[in-house]
Structure formats: C-alpha cells, structure tokens
# Entry
Amino acid sequence: GGLGDVLGGLPPAMAANGHRVMTVSPRYDQYKDAWDTGVPVEIEVGGRVETVRFFHCYKRGVDRVFVDHPSFLERVWGKTGSKIYGPSAGEDYKDNQFRFSLLCQAALEAPKVLNLNSNKYFSGPYGDEVVFIANDWHTALLPCYLKAIYKPKGIYENAKVVFCIHNIAYQGRFPISDLSVLNLPENLRGSLDFIDGYSKPVKGRKINWMKAGILESDRVVTVSPFYAQELVSGEDKGVELDNIIRKTSITGIVNGMDVQEWNPATDKYLDTKYDNTTVLDAKPLVKEALQAEVGLPVDRNIPVIGFIGRLEE
# Structure
C-alpha cells in the first residue's frame, strides 16, 4: 500500500541527491530481476540459528535487497492474493515475531556483508557509517538489536536510526511470554513492555514493537506535519502511544510523489498522454476511456472522483 509507494519512490529521490541507498525487504516472491548474491548469513532468533540469503537488483540508483528465508516465500508461494501478515484481517501469523525479527537482524547485516558494485560512484560493502530508516512496526526492533548486539562490539558506533510511522494503528502487539523469541537483553524489557485494555492477543501485559522502535531510535518521523500533530493530540489518535511519542518528539515530513512514475506525459497506462500544455484537451479523453472501461455512462461533462485509501472502521 502506501508504504510500498514510498519505498518505490523515496529511495531513487535520495539517490538522485547523491546518497548511496539500499532498501531491505523480505523476499515474498521470486522477483525476476533480483539475483542471489551467494552471501548467506546466520542469525539467531527464537533460540535457534537460521540462515538467510540476500537477493539483489540495482534500479534507478538504488540497491534493492531482498531477504530470502522460507518463512517469507512459503507464505505467498503459488497462491495469488495470499496474505503476508496473517491468515485473515486483524489476525497475525503465529511466527510473525520470528519473521520480522529475522528481517530486522538481516537488515543490520546487509550493509556489512554485501559487496555491491552496481553504482559507478560507490563500490564494496556500505560499511557501518550508515543511517537506518526503519518503517512501521515490522522493523521497529532494528534499533534494539543495534544497541544490544552491535554497538557493544564496536560495530555501527556512529550509525543512527530514524523510525518512520506510516500508520500508528498497527503496532505489533504480542504476548509478553514471547519475549524470549526475540533474543533481546532484559534491560530492553521496559521499552517493549505495554499494557492495554484489550484481550487480543492476550489479556494484560504485552510486547509492543512500535513502542520499542519509538523509544530506541534517534529520531521519530511520520508522513506529514498534520499526522505528527494528530498522533500526539490524544489517546485515540495516537492509539495509546501518544504519551510515548510526546516523550521523544516527532517530526512530520510530507510524503512526496514520484514524478517519474506518475508523469502523465510518459505514463504507459494512459491512452492519451499529456503535459501542462495539452492537459485541457487530453483529460476529457482520458476520462471517457475510463468511463467506458468500467461501464459508466460516457460523458466528459460528468466529474469522476477517485479515492485512494483504506476503508475501515
């Protein structure tokens, strides 16, 4: 959804500003452009050692890295429209903490171990002078592992973490009994510990990934100045994390638009291309084509309104 759009457009914009940019996400599919780097890494999670591999492609100045592990690929393999986060709405897969802990730790390994040379301005591993941008609850433990595992060993000593909240409603709340799965020291318990009034997934004390991400990161940002205000305006808008965010402060940065992808002069999905000089002639034609395609009365004088967003209670 929105996060996918941001991750599609923001990294190329950062690369265009001269940064070396890598995105790290799960390998949910056999992405045809992404090839196996041949670099395996062993990660400890849930009391056992798991091997992950990294697949890679280079596009628009960005190293796109995909973490390969059966727990990601098996979820969606062979079934279209398969669910990534849970079997049905509002329900988590039982191994979600295991899966996203794996993602967080793999993302911390990638800059150190991947010897990438696609970019003519940069070569070799990224090293440990990096800024991590962790998006939403799934990556919220990254700053925790950074603090608990890497910094004590003198790795990533100058690295910083920005935690970005795209949707406060999804926080990664799990039973406190699962704490041992996460391989985190006892001194981080306070950042994860959370009590709410709901009986899901269990009553009483819980783990809250997003709370930990907010508290352990160097900066907290969100997708617009107005949303930043909204999140600290009260318990309902901040979905019970408003007091935590007030403690750390938050910066709202407006989500931008990928002007390459959404350029009507080159958009392959438009029957009639246009720019600012031809927009008034072309827009009615595009509207008529859309009306015909979806079975509406074809009439260029009727307004057509589109809504992109989630419909939920």
Remarks:
- The chain is about 30% helix and 20% strand.
- The chain has two domains: 2-252, 263-312.
- The chain has a mean pLDDT of 92.
